[in-house]
RNA sequence: GGCGGC
DNA sequence: GCCGCCAACATA
């Protein structure tokens, strides 16, 4: 029964990791049809739009969680978010087709599909380098997100640590963190140390010690990559000890 | 969103 | 009203 328990935890963990399909099962030919212009690390697994909702929970930074939620709730994203979130998704490996489908599935709940591709199709293809100059766009860094194109009152893009009133920020963080953790983070935010605020957020949500990440978060995609790396490591550790007594004690959250 | 074309 | 084109930059 220890073993059974271990397998259950493992299953949950794997759902959060994107390395679900065995690498060995995906020969290089699995990538046919897709194009990688250097920014996508090799060896990574293809991400589909159906995996996003799971990945958001553990591996997306606050800014992206914000926009993803808005997308699911309002079935729409304003220009700024479409770009910031769209490029981030592209950065984590979501293909053009998947991104296009994901947005259409959602937007199309409020507008006719023909209006969708007339209104948003071009820009999405453009981000993937399929229009105009045909150069794939790269995601914005925290600095870029914080410095340029500030969100207006109705926008949902930007950086929560920088663009949310501390009241709202605390409220948002409260749903996934302890009170004292929320305080520490908002303290950094109020002190305009957004990178530290985000790094602490990462450490707390990944159950690391403060400073345990060993680096500052300066890019949303870095946040994602580091998160996936940790989850992968824990899956590996789990497999190595599964069946053993250690498994029971291990907190995989 | 901005710029541009009719 | 119809349409095209652009911006970015962590990173082992
Ligand atoms: S710090 Fe960078 S990653 Fe963290 S929320 Fe703000 S923008 Fe997103």
UniProtKB/TrEMBL annotation:
Protein name in UniProt: DNA primase large subunit C-terminal domain-containing protein
Cellular-component GO terms for this entry: alpha DNA polymerase:primase complex
Entry's Gene Ontology molecular function annotations: 4 iron, 4 sulfur cluster binding; metal ion binding
Source organism of the structure: Caenorhabditis japonica
GO terms under biological process: DNA replication initiation; DNA replication, synthesis of primer
DNA primase large subunit C-terminal domain segment(s): 54-224
Alphabetized UniProt keyword annotations: 4Fe-4S, DNA replication, Iron, Iron-sulfur, Metal-binding, Primosome
InterPro entries found in the cross-reference section: DNA_primase_C, DNA_primase_lsu_euk/arc
Taxonomy, superkingdom: Eukaryota
Keyword Iron-sulfur: yes
Cofactors: [4Fe-4S] cluster
């Amino acid at each position: 029964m220890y073993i059974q328990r271990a397998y259950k935890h493992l299953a949950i963990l794997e759902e959060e990791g994107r390395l679900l399909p065995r690498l060995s099962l995906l020969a290089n030919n699995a990538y046919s049809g897709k194009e990688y212009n250097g920014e996508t690390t090799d060896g990574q697994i293809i991400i589909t739009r159906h995996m996003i909702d799971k990945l958001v929970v553990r591996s997306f930074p606050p800014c992206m969680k914000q926009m993803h939620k808005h997308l699911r709730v309002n079935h729409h994203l304003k220009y700024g978010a479409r770009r910031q979130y769209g490029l981030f998704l592209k950065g984590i490996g979501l293909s053009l087709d998947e991104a296009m489908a994901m947005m259409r599935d959602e937007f199309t709940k409020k507008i006719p599909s023909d209006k969708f591709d007339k209104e948003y199709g071009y820009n999405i293809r453009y981000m993937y380098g399929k229009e105009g100059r045909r150069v794939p766009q790269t995601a914005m860094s925290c600095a870029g997100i914080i410095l340029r194109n500030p969100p207006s009152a109705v926008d949902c893009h930007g950086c929560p640590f920088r663009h949310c009133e501390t009241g709202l920020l605390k409220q948002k963080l409260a749903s996934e963190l302890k009170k004292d953790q929320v305080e520490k983070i908002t303290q950094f935010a109020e002190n305009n140390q957004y990178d530290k605020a985000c790094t602490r957020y990462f450490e707390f949500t990944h159950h690391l010690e403060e400073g345990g990440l060993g680096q500052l978060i300066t890019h949303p995609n870095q946040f994602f990559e580091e998160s996936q790396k940790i989850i992968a490591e824990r899956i590996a550790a789990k497999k190595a000890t599964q069946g053993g007594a250690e498994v029971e004690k291990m907190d995989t959250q």
